[in-house]
Amino acid sequence: MPLLLKSCPNLQTLVFKGLIHRVTNRCGDACACNPGQKKRKRMKKLKEVCCLQTCRVKVLEISDCGGCFQELKQMIHFLDNLECLEILKVGVDPNKNSELVRANVMPLPRLSSKCTIQFI
Question: Strand, coil or helix: what is 17?
Answer without folding.
Answer: strand
